[in-house]
């Protein structure tokens, strides 16, 4: 190999980057080699090439194939003070920046968000979701975040971007005043509002937030359990239905616990059914008078407005029954309806069941004896009626 061939081999003739590692920024490994004037620069789709001269951003190239010359490197030509037609090798740092969307980036709250809710009071919220971003201004991005690093990935910046997103979402939730019960119906609106708030911060670093999604905003386990109990009560309805629901739950839990055996299941079933019956009886008799009844065989009190009668068996085995005096008098003056046999009170002129007029009393014309409705002869004197 001749001296000319050796010197020519030290010049870089092709500059390109095959992105296969998912990096956001890649520094072309030129080392101390000079770039040949007229070298080929290959910039693929979703890439940008940035030339840096002694730490200062120079020319930026978008997708395409370029032959480097003073004509397509005006900034670098000015910085180097090259004259027109300059054709000597030169040294510069070349950075390739990925401009594609970096998707499925995660964000989540490290600490709970304290928020006041009108229904649940002060609660702690946690949230998480995903976002996508891309490099919008390669030059500004290099100047703001990269510096002299030779390689840069999303992992090195995701923590900082996540903090920006969480801060904006925390502030947004505090100002929204949306009840916790309705937060799930507002995820899309909250995501759009949060994206508008975060976007200026991203653009100040040469980035663009292309998508922000709130996947979930959750409550502490204790609050979620309280909500579940309240929902169960709402499904059960009244207390009677709730007791039945609790009984069914006890049976299910006993059946799912094989270690308890048949005795445990029977005990749970019996306890649940017993409680349901007691509560049902209490609710079905809200106005019942629970005053103690007089003991068997005790005579009625004369001043209490009741009369005492027995079933005729007498002695200690007789069962006393207290009947109101007014009811006894009314029963004594009743007359059976001649059509259907319904007992008619003295004040009733027509039968309330069939509408038949009240039977009129008949008397014997001979002796004046009261006659039954069906009597054909007087039972006292035998006169035909």
TrEMBL record:
Residue intervals of the DZANK-type domain: 337-382
Superkingdom of origin: Bacteria
A Pfam family recorded for this sequence: DZR
Gene3D superfamilies documented for this protein: Band 7 domain (3.30.479.30)
Residue ranges occupied by any SPFH domain in the UniProt entry: 25-235
Region (Disordered) location: 283-321
InterPro entries: Band_7/SPFH_dom_sf (IPR036013), DZR (IPR025874), SPFH_YdjI (IPR033880)
Protein name per the record: SPFH domain-containing protein
UniProt organism field: Cohnella zeiphila
């Amino acid at each position: 190999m001749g001296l000319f061939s050796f010197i020519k081999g030290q010049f870089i003739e092709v500059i390109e980057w095959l992105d296969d590692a998912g990096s956001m920024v890649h520094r072309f490994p030129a080392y101390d080699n000079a770039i040949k004037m007229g070298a080929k620069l290959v910039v693929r789709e979703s890439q940008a090439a940035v030339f840096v001269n002694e730490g200062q951003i120079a020319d930026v190239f978008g997708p395409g194939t370029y032959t480097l010359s003073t004509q397509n490197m005006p900034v670098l030509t000015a910085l180097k003070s090259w004259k027109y037609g300059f054709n000597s090798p030169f040294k510069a740092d070349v950075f390739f920046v990925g401009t594609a969307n970096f998707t499925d980036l995660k964000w989540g709250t490290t600490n709970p968000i304290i928020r006041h809710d009108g229904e649940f009071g002060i609660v702690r919220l946690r949230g998480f979701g995903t976002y996508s971003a891309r490099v919008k201004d390669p030059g500004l991005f290099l100047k703001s975040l990269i510096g002299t690093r030779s390689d840069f990935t999303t992992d090195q910046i995701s923590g900082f971007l996540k903090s920006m997103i969480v801060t904006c979402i925390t502030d947004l939730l505090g100002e929204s005043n949306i009840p916790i019960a309705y937060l799930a119906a507002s995820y899309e609106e909250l995501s759009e509002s949060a994206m508008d708030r975060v976007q200026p911060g991203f653009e100040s670093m040469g980035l663009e937030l292309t998508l922000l999604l709130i996947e979930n905003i959750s409550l502490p386990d204790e609050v979620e359990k309280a909500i579940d109990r309240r929902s169960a009560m709402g499904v059960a309805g009244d207390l009677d239905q709730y007791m039945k629901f609790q009984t069914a739950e006890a049976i299910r839990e006993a059946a799912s616990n094989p270690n308890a055996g048949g005795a445990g299941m029977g005990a749970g079933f019996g306890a649940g059914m017993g409680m349901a019956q007691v509560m049902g009886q209490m609710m079905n008799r809200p106005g019942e008078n629970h005053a103690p009844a007089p003991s068997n065989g005790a005579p009625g009190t004369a001043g209490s407005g009741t009369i005492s009668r027995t079933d005729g068996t007498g002695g200690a085995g007789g069962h006393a029954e207290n009947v109101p005096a007014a009811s006894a008098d009314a029963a004594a003056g009743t007359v059976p309806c001649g059509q259907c046999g319904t007992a008619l009170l003295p004040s009733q002129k027509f039968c309330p069941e069939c509408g038949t007029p009240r039977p009129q009393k008949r008397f014997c014309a001979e002796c004046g004896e009261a006659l039954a409705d069906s009597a054909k002869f007087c039972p006292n004197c035998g006169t035909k009626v």
